[in-house]
Amino acid sequence: MSKVIRLSALNGRTNDSHLLAAKHVLTSGQVIGLPTDTIYGLAVSVLNTAAIKRLYQLKTRDESKPIAICVADIDQIGKWCDTTVGSHVLHDLLPGAVTLVFNRSDGLNANLNPGHELVGVRIPDHNFIRDLCRLCGPLGLTSANLSSEASCLNVDEFQHLWPELAAVFDGGPLAVSLGYANPS
C-alpha cells in the first residue's frame, strides 16, 4: 500500500520534505497520486520509460491514447515541444486549467506517446506540482482513476488505486469550480 502524505504549505511555499519524498519516488520509476489545479492526477517521470508503461497498465489505458506532460514554467515548454503561439498567449493562459497541444520536440522521450507527433502540455496552477516539476523535470500526468471512471476531486475517491501507487500526496478536497467530470 502506498504512503499517504498530507500536503502542507509553509508561508505559501511547498514543504521541502514533501518534494524530496515525491522526487525520490518519481526518480525510482514509480507512480504517484497528487493534486492539480483541477482534479487529482497520477504522475510519472517523463524521462523514465518503465514508469510510463506502468502508468498505462495501472490505469488500464489504451496505449494509443496519449498522456499529457506537465512542466513548471512557460520557459520549459520549448524544450519538449515546438510552440506555435507567441509568448504573450502562453502567459495569458498559463498556469491554469488549460492543456495546449504542440508538435513534440526531439528532446521528449520517444517512448511517451509513440506514434504521436503532438503532445499536450500543462502548467497547473498548483504550487506542489510546479515545484515538483522544477525539481524532477517534466511529468507525465493523467487523471487519478481507471480509464472510463469519473475524475476525482478528493484523495479518497481513488483509494482503490493506492496499493499500486508508491505515494499519494493529499492536498485536501479540490474545488468543483470548473465542472470536470471525466477527462480520463
Automatic annotation (TrEMBL):
Domain of life: Eukaryota
Record's signal peptide: none
Assigned keywords, A-Z: Cell membrane, Cytoplasm, Membrane, Mitochondrion, Transferase, Transit peptide
One GO term describing the cellular component: mitochondrion
The protein's enzyme class: transferase
Record flagged with keyword Transferase: yes
Primary role: Cytoplasmic and mitochondrial threonylcarbamoyl-AMP synthase required for the formation of a threonylcarbamoyl group on adenosine at position 37 (t(6)A37) in tRNAs that read codons beginning with adenine. Catalyzes the conversion of L-threonine, HCO(3)(-)/CO(2) and ATP to give threonylcarbamoyl-AMP (TC-AMP) as the acyladenylate intermediate, with the release of diphosphate. Participates in t(6)A37 formation in cytoplasmic and mitochondrial tRNAs. May regulate the activity of some transporters.
Record protein name field: Threonylcarbamoyl-AMP synthase
Organism: Medioppia subpectinata
